[in-house]
Amino acid sequence: MSMATVVKITSPGGSELMQIVQEAVSAPVAGQVQILQTAIGLNYIDIYHRNGLYPLPMPNGLGLEAAGVVQAVGEGVEHLQVGDRVAYGTGPIGAYTSLRNMPANRVCKLPDAISDETAAAMMLKGMTVRYLLRETYTVQAGETILFHAAAGGVGLMACQWAKALGVTVIGTVGSEEKAAIAREHGCDYTINYNTEDVAKRVREITEGRGVPVVYDGVGRATLMGSLDSLQPRGLLVSYGNASGPITHFDLGLLSAKGSLYLTRPTLMTYTATDEAMQENASDLFAMVESGQLQIPIHQRYPLSEVQQAHRDLEGRKTTGTTLLIP
Q: What's the pTM?
């Protein structure tokens, strides 16, 4: 029996409710591997789980993404062995820990060229970008798209991936500093949503046409601007709620604004089968190994400072990706 340093919550609420405790970890059972974790990814969905927007049974852990080294292998596991460097990005919840047992079929062996930190920073966000750009709406070379929060962790990866596919990217940001970061990562046009009318600028950039797809992880605050940026029969991909959830939506808006489409996808649905998850991860690994996708790690916090990490992410003080180090 080994001991792990674990972040736990006993009720939903603010960042101050996260507690760091020591817990015993038993040997992995059939179908599991035990991972000594070296880096943990921080994602906005962790905040939704913590504050109760996405309810969890209590008490519970937090976190969906990490990387580390296999310490033990349960019966029946064939694709992983002790000493393998591995990562995961689709849970199950409980990644905020130094040591854990994981379902082996949700764990990916890392290529030598990808470091633990890079892997922990890229799995959930990179797999999200992959399904958004290649499945929810298959972007094509020559198209122009709008991506909100372009300087965030998902945004900076999406700008690069879309650029590699020959797509023109319009990105929204909240400051000139963030605009510069987005442009450095392949964003062609930046719009400061604090000082500019997003839809008006999109129309100017596209010579009045609008865009075929808007990727919106912000939610309530950007909804109308997103809809008004779309061309007729365009698609709004609402994949997050950083500004709060969209409720009581009037479907009539979709007809009034041009027979628009609206979808609310999740990574969990797009990686529900083992085959879908491994295919997604393989594409992500290939993009990173090719050099076309750089993973921007801009913040690192000790796991013991998890409360501050959450406060900074919620306060929009971070750019790129953030790691917790056990």
A: 0.91
